[in-house]
# Entry
Amino acid sequence: MDFRFNFAVDENENSEADAHFLLLCSPEHKQESREKSRGTASLAAKSSLKLAAAKYQDEAALKKNLCVKAAKEHSIPQDLNKVLENKVMETVLDLSYVKLSVVEMTCSGDADSEGIVSKSVSSHSDLIPGVYEGGLKIWECTFDLMDYFSEAEIEFTNKTVLDLGCGAGLLGIVALQGEAARVHFQDYNSTVIDEITLPNVVANCVSEGSGKDRKASKPPSKRPRKAESSPDMLNRCRFFSGEWSQVSQLLLNSNKPCLKYDIILTSETIYNPDYYSALHDTLAQLLDRNGRVYLASKVHYFGVGGGIYLFEKFIEDKNVFTTSMVKTIDQGLQRCIMEIAFKNSC
# Structure
């Protein structure tokens, strides 16, 4: 065996190893390595940020889904006197309604399982998004819309009507007294339905001075009265609480499926642009093909960003409905009433 050959090979290998070592130790290589390291670190950081953002979005979506308020239908108690028990009534535009300040003082425990009364009072807020959506207060656009019914001679006779985001339910009560065939009331909060809407409907269905004869009758006593309601009027009513999308599913898929509504009434429900999609979808799902929506709103809601023209633009972009501004009220903060109908409807 020729050891010189083997030695030569080993010597070559050592020379290559030395050269490689010198290359690694060179300033140029060190700079290149540092740049590669920084690049790798940058890619890792970007990847980490993307993962974090995706995780945040997933958690936000999950949280949003968890916060969806399920729909519920509220039954009308057989003993109607229980509905008006401990309620103090006031009147406005010939309608009876529960005095809200008394509700705030007396409503607690099982009567306010959502805790919205205490939360609203403690936070001094008429709106806690996702918790309490304003149903404890009668908003001024409600009265604008009631005035418009008379001015435009809106006909409710034999119509199916939905009071969407009803709160006190005054709009639906006017429709009920106008001989609507069916009136359904919806509010986000179940406490509002049980403690305010339902008592108001019962109080305005009592046989003494109800309906068209009310204007000739004396104002009702502020003391709770015995409820001798017209069964026919109450039989035309249904009451729902929960998020709009959930209520729509309940109405369309329940054992008592609902026909589409001829008229949907809604007041001051477009204050938050985050709700526009849900509201639009609900109207599209529940309105009869030739039905009408009457929506009352302020031009702009400071602090939450919504308003009539922003919602009008949202509807225009969706290209499902046509809109018409049928009335503008300039006293105080400008307010409007919008009529909404399906495109190509009669």
